[in-house]
Amino acid sequence: MLNSTVTTRTQAILDALNEGFAAGDVERIKAQFATDSYWRDLVAFTWNIKTAEGPAQIGDMLDSQLASIRPSDFRLQEGEMPTEEGGVITAWITFETALGRGWGLIRLRDDRIWTLLTALQELKGHEEPRRTRRPMGARHGAAKNRSTWKEEREAEAATLGYDTQPYTVIIGGGQGGIALGARLRQLGVPTIVLDKHDRPGDQWRNRYKSLCLHDPVWYDHLPYIKFPDNWPVFTPKDKVGDWLEMYTRVMELNYWTRSEVTKASFDEEAGEWTVEVDRDGEKVVLKPTQLVLATGMSGKMNMPEFPGMDRFKGEIQHSSQHEGPDAWTGKKVVVIGSNNSAHDICAALWEHDVDVTMVQRSSTHIVRSDSLMEIGLGALYSEEAVANGVTTEKADMIFASLPYRIMHEFQKPVYDQIRERDAAFYAGLEKAGFELDFGDDDSGLFMKYLRRASGYYIDVGASQLIIDGEVKLVKGQVDHFEEDAVVLSDGTRLEADLVVMATGYGSMNGWAADLISQEVADRIGKVWGLGSDTTKDPGPWEGEQRNMWKPTQQPNLWLHGGNLHQSRHYSLYLALQIKARQEGLDTPVYGLQEVHHLS
Fold first, then answer.
1. Which of 60, 144, 259, 442 could form a disulfide with 279 if both were Cys (CB 3.0 to 4.6 A apart)?
2. Going by DSSP bridges, is the β-strand pair 498-501/315-318 parallel, antiparallel, or unpaired?
3. pLDDT under 50 in the chain at which residues?
4. In what order do the strands lie in the sheet with 315-318?
């Protein structure tokens, strides 16, 4: 009876929305939303990734978009029943627009909409060839001179980029470029993925030998092909590389290895890019309509310059250049930095009998892996979640349905619980002199990642080495280098044969500056962050990730990437935006992001 009542109350809201949509009555639609409400849209209504906060912003979005989007048929998703907990009704929904179909998640408080997520899933008439629409694969019967699948693939590989031009070029063939390439392939968008490495997956293979995913397998699936049920929880880097290489073949991507972009420019009149590529020594000029930088949040290294570096007789490496500890047994190594890479590298060096010192320059958030798995991720991404019917797709949508404005309120209790559970662990770190933080508002790892993509370590063992003094810890700022040492601003002198700069990475618009122009980079502005006005995430409030997976101020230029979860989930919405433009569909963008910061 209770569920029947919850269903009736939810359906009443959906009916009111449908009536308002049909009549073009923005005031009636706004009346269904609570004062403190949030509508997050993934392309379906805004042709953007945008959150409208409160009835006034929601009304402004509808005034702009309603006539062209023509939404209809908001209904409860088939086979899903609304639930109520703590005074909040949660329901899965589906809907249609003039051009597409979507699904979402709605939360009600006091019979008004508190949060609404709408996400475009497919374009009408351009659906992916899946399930009942899958290709036959074989053409039964007999015909003279017909080509095989292999011959057709070889012909496509030989002609695309030469005799015919791709509609889209993706620069960067890591997990982001590969996931997007697979999405576009299924949508029939001619696409070439460019990567400078010898093989797909080398982005992972070439990193330090101890690197392993810190996110669990349930969080890391790629589109279409999930990892097998016996895949390890935490995937070693070379295994990730092999999976990506396999994936590019199975998903039939036009993936150009040993291909480096030397220059790119956009012809505003023609609406076309010119992309000059060094393809294994051959100069190739591509003319795509859409250009995607999938060069990675961890792609453009931040290599600081300090006085005396040119006189240092040892070796200086950025963490992305560090291959591993093997050559440094019995030597002295100083690692500048105290986040994920720094900890991983220090632990691997210690395991190989290296005298290793970590230099902590600023406070770091630490969360133990098992605590993060159980408390932070378990409800959405775990074997238990799968058993409870929370598929990867559902988990992605649940996470996406929490507006960034209030996400920290959901995260803070999680990290309060973790801090209590691991109190002895944190006390040990502080006793060792390690400077800890839980984010500016104690909201922990995910908010730090979303706001600044730095400043944290998921502990898989290195923290205990610091607690035990096996990895030496020094706090301070680097002042200069001498021939055999790093000298800190307080005069501390750290002798070193190798210095590893675990100093992070720059904003992705740096790639736009290198490959296109500084003017285009500045037109795009800063990439990543929410505008939360916290450390390294300056305001004003954006409410979404700056410039990621959505239109930018530079026409026909897109940025794509993030961790495996984001590469998987948001590649769909970017692919749909590109496909719609290829087909000449009307895509009125609402709320194109303004530029407030250049880097």
1. 259
2. parallel
3. 1
4. 315-318, 498-501, 332-336, 355-360, 472-475
